[in-house]
Amino acid sequence: MYRKLTPEETDAILEAGIDEFALKGPDGASMQGIANRAGVSVGVLYKYYKNKEHFFESCLRRCLVVLEDVIRDVLEEEDKILVRAEKLIRAIQKIAKEHPRYNVLYQELTSGSCRAYAARYARDIETISGLAYTSFLRQAQEEGLIRQDADARLLAFFFDSLLMMLQFSYSCDYYRERFRIYCGEDILDDDEKVVSELLKFLESAFTFEADQIQHGGG
């Protein structure tokens, strides 16, 4: 008979699962490999998780809760839009360095290897950030802080897409290499430059009205 796992032991098992799934994908990972990594018997895993799919979902939810909490904590503060943006960028950098496998697993969810889970989780995951970003962008428009001629929902989508790409660029092999190619070999060690340049980009996107932009031939 197995004793009840402590919260710390459960956390350790989930972290081992996240590492294994991030390295091998949901198809390549095995419950035996996860048990070996966690230092427990495979029987312990099956006592608490009925199968690999159930365990994968538990690992995925752990990652997403952490990422969602970061977003929620920043957006609950009553800061101006660029201050919030800076806090989000810095939070993304921090979590990418502390928990890189979380972002790898998130990226797996957006790829073909996790197609079976994508539709199920996309609405749960993206609704939280989508509603939050749209809300604070609309508020900024109402206060006259950002451009009035843009659809807040599309601004929120583009904003989130930039942040998602930044997450992957710090954590996922392909995107990390792409980051270096575009921005230099030492870019991953220069967080302040990334924050500064991304804020410049966001400020111009949020504040330039259509009649302020000169198109070719003008």
CATH architecture classification name of the domain at 61-206: Orthogonal Bundle
- CATH fold name of the domain at 61-206, please? Tetracycline Repressor, domain 2
Strand content: under 5%
Q: How would a crystallographer describe the biggest sheet?
A: none
Text of the CATH class of the domain at 61-206: Mainly Alpha
Radius of gyration: 20 Å
Number of continuous helical runs: 10
Straight-line N-to-C gap? 79 Å
Low-confidence parts: none
In short:
This protein is mostly helical and 218 residues long.
Describe this structure in words.
This protein has 218 residues and is mostly helical. The chain has a domain at 61-206: Tetracycline Repressor, domain 2 (Orthogonal Bundle), CATH 1.10.357. It is built from ten helices and no strands. It has helices at 7-28, 31-38, 42-48, 52-75, 81-98, 100-109, 115-142, 152-171, 173-183, 191-207. Helix 1 crosses helix 4 (52-75) and helix 5 (81-98) runs parallel beside helix 8. The radius of gyration is 20 Å and the shape is elongated. The termini are far apart. The model has no long low-confidence stretch (mean pLDDT 86).
Q: What labels describe this entry?
A:
single chain, 218 residues, mainly alpha, Tetracycline Repressor, domain 2, elongated
Draw up the topology in text.
Blueprint: H1 7-28, H2 31-38, H3 42-48, H4 52-75, H5 81-98, H6 100-109, H7 115-142, H8 152-171, H9 173-183, H10 191-207
Helix pairs in contact: 1-2, 1-4, 1-6, 4-5, 4-6, 4-7, 5-6, 5-8, 5-10, 6-8, 7-8, 8-9
